[in-house]
Amino acid sequence: MNEYGRALRRWRRLRGVKQSHAAELLGVTQATLSRWERGHHRLPEAAERKLAQLLRAPLDSAGDAGLRRLIEGSALSVHLICDLSHRLLAASPARVINWTADLAEMRGRSLWRFATEEIRTAESRLGELGWYDDGVAQVSFENGANGSEVVPIEPGMLVWERLQLSDGTLARLVTSL
């Protein structure tokens, strides 16, 4: 099963959405949706985009707002992203100090375009590590620099921790050590 299939199934169960309704929202048959959820077929890119919109990890409940305040007040270099889309949800002052982009402007946007080769490699290995099966909730690895002036990444150890937000969507806490 791929991460989008798992995320789709989790989203439906958390919200009590029937397969037929989810299929209608995504413009496919119930049988196709069922195959996606079981991992028998990979979602086409257009369906992944629609699903990403449905699964957008918000940070707007009271509990999640507390998480945002903790991150935005942290002395550590840390940020929180949607686990599926890599959209920025929150970042600490230590994380954004060297950014030329404004935090408010970057919030809600995917940070994937700034990813280093090491981040891309680690991301590609998450499935085999059990990340999407709740088999592992933390991954750490040595990271290199990305050379970006907008959202620079410095070399060092990165720690990814998977968190569930109050609405059931999954987020990733990224800490530089």
List the topology elements.
Elements: H1 3-15, H2 19-26, H3 30-38, H4 45-54, H5 62-72, E1 77-82, E2 88-91, H6 93-96, H7 103-106, H8 117-129, E3 138-143, E4 156-164, E5 170-176
Antiparallel strand pairs: 1-2, 1-5, 3-4, 4-5
Sum this structure up briefly:
With 177 residues, the chain is of the alpha+beta class. The chain has helices at residues 3-15, 19-26, 30-38, 45-54, 62-72, 93-96, 103-106, 117-129; strands spanning 77-82, 88-91, 138-143, 156-164, 170-176. The chain has eight helices and five strands, in the order αααααββαααβββ.
Tally the structural domains: 2
Following the backbone from N to C, one meets helices and strands in this order, namely HHHHHEEHHHEEE
Any idea of the CATH class of the largest domain?
A: Alpha Beta
CATH fold-level topology of the largest domain: Beta-Lactamase
- Percent of residues in helices comes to 40-55%
In the CATH hierarchy, what is the architecture of the largest domain at level 2?
A: 2-Layer Sandwich
* Largest β sheet strand count, sense and barrel closure: 5 strands, antiparallel
Query: Mind telling me the CATH superfamily name of the largest domain?
Result: PAS domain
Give unreliable regions as ranges: none
Sheet/helix structural class? alpha+beta
Alpha-carbon distance between the two ends: 32 Å
The share of residues in extended strands comes to 15-25%
Q: Total number of β-strand segments?
A: 5
Q: Overall mean pLDDT score?
A: 87
Q: What is the spatial order of strands in the main beta sheet?
A: 2-1-5-4-3
So what's the overall shape?
globular
Separate helix tally: 8
Radius of gyration: 17 Å
